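cache lookup: miss for this entity combination. No prior model stored, computing from scratch. Input as submitted by user K.M.:
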Amino acid sequence: MTERAPRQLQKTWMVLVLMVLAGMLLSLKVQDPGTPLMFALALLTLAVLKARLVVLDFLGLRSGPRVLRVGLIAWTLFLAFAAAAKALIAAVSPVG
Amino acid sequence: MEIAMTAGADDEEEADTFILWVLIWGELAAFGILIAAFLVASVIAADDFAVARLHLKPAIAASNTLVLLTSGWQAAVAAGKGASVARRRRALVLAALLGFAFVAIKIYEYGTEIRFAGEAAFHSFFELYFLLTGFHLVHVGFVAIVLLVVAWRPRPANVGLVTTLWHVIDLVWIVMFPILYLV
């Protein structure tokens, strides 16, 4: 959709990989029953940031149509907020 | 005459892009509804969902995220305006092969999970889990084949269309992964 330099794409990919690795480290902590909500929110934030990078750099919408950029990021945010609400409900009324 | 033909080609390309985005928003609506259904069901049957989730393999799924993101990177390289035909082709083939790797890893993962799906308490969880991930998997497999077809004759317009769809499939997985496996 827009001009994307290979070097910029490689940089974006490396940042995405680091985010996935950070998520993998965090997910090990999710098993800890004392602090699941905080880690759940951190994992969802990472997901939104990854999605944002894919939209802006891989899809090339950083300078593309605003309506598509905002719409795609809003779609990810809506589902992330819904998942955060679910995690909050689970934290208020713990399993078992 | 030549100007008219160029204008016609531009109009056609614009129409193709419009139809693609209509299709993409239809897909995002479908995935959004399924993910929302999963979230609602996981609130209603919180205990069963929490136990069923322990049978999933988030490490395998996270590895698959890396595979799909790397594939997305190659797809973006292929869609770069300055890319030569050879570079476009190589990047599309790599993106497709990584797509097939995603499918293979996911099928292996299913093999480790399927035996738990028969347990009565986990029915709702695994029905939604297999529906969501299966629907996504079919998209990955199908569009990976299309990437290979486009790689054969990588016209910039076609490369732009197929890689846009590929990135949206990537986007769906990025959102779906933490919701199904972790949160």
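stored under new cache key. The first helix of chain B runs from residue 2 to 44.
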